[in-house]
Amino acid sequence: MNVSRKKILGTIAATTGILAAVAYPAHAEGDSKAKQDGDPSATYIWENDGGADPDKADFYWDNDLAEAVACEEVEANPLLEADNRVFPGVTWTWYYDDSERPESVSMDSVLSTLTASFKAIHDLRNNCGITGDLNLDFKYGGERDHEQFTSEGTAYEINVSFADLAGSTVGNGGSDGANWGEDNDVPYVRARGHVKLDSDTNWMTPGAAGCPENFREDGDLQKTDMQSTVMHEIMHVLNVDHAEEDGTPMPDDTDNPKAYQTMASATATCTVFERTLGRGDIATLVDLYGTD
Predict the structure, then answer these.
(1) Three-state SS for 64?
(2) Is 191 helix (H, G, I), strand (E, B) or coil?
(3) Nearest-angstrom CA–CA distance, 274 and 186
(4) Which helix (H) or strand (E) holds 51?
């Protein structure tokens, strides 16, 4: 099963709170400047200094606010359908296919991001003060063509690669199925999932420069956080569903914590707060894979 995540490029119409799926326009006269200094962990805010056109107020992120909202109560939302399974107590081996990686990111930065993403899920990394253990693990199996698959013995595999994804989709992840059998009276199970990242997306990786100050004036400067996307797609492999159908937060939308989870169905450019799990993300993982 394939489940995709889309990016949102846009401005907030301050009078209506509607997010438009268009690139950021040039600054209106008197509009506030972005507080971006190239640090991907920098604070983003929504502000209009009163002198700007209210329909062109700038929308970007306050990570502290976003993390606080993500830690509010959200019910677990697993994705369990007839052909999907949960495999607690196993180690998933992930492999990387470098063949369609965009030149804008190095292989080392991609592998570093992937490693950090799997670790963040395994460790239930969050800013909510929640602790717990998951009954699953991940290990890196090396670089290989994504068509390869272990044909002998028991195997749980995740293939990570780049591809030219349709439209505004930045990531695609899910289960490729599982089969059970027996070889010489020895039972086995082979399960495989995939994570695909869009090869045309302008990616931001941990430790790299974030969006420049004028990112709203030029769509080419807007970056999508790779770690947030990878974590989202890994969780689809683990049969975690979207937090909600339309996961794009509105400014100061503190009544909608689902939209601030890593599993929100859409992500805005130049945001990094989804590198940590929200309460709903954690509740779902613990529901499916918790040790207690």
Answers:
(1) helix
(2) strand
(3) 42
(4) none
- C-alpha 139: how far from chain center: 19
Cβ count within 10 A of residue 10:
18
Residue type, 151: S
Residues forming beta bridges with residue 142, ordered by sequence position: 95
Q: What is the pLDDT along the chain (292 residues), one digit of tens a residue?
A: 577 676 654 332 222 222 222 222 222 222 223 333 333 333 333 333 344 333 433 445 566 778 888 999 988 888 766 567 788 899 999 999 999 999 999 999 999 999 999 999 999 999 999 999 999 999 999 998 766 666 667 789 999 999 999 888 999 999 888 888 888 888 888 888 999 999 999 999 988 777 776 666 676 778 899 999 999 999 999 999 898 876 666 655 667 888 889 999 888 787 888 999 999 999 999 999 987 6
3-state secondary structure of 126: strand
Using DSSP's 3-state secondary structure scheme, residue 90 falls into strand
* CB-count burial class (<10 Å; 0-12, 13-18, 19+) for 237: buried
Residue pair 48/31 in contact (Cβ under 8 Å)? The answer is: yes
CA atoms of 258 and 59, how far apart (whole Å): 19
Q: The tokens of 239 are what? A: 């049969």
DSSP string, 259-292: GGSTT-SEEETT--GGGSB-HHHHHHHHHHHB--
Structure tokens that stand for 172 in this block: 């695609």
- Burial letters 49-76, b for 16+ CB under 10 A, else e: eeebeebbbbbbbbbebbbbbbbbebeb
> In sequence order, what are the residues at sequence separation of 6 or more whose Cβ sits closer than 8 angstroms to the Cβ of residue 132?
124, 282, 286, 290, 291, 292
Residue 82 CB neighbours (<10 A)? 5
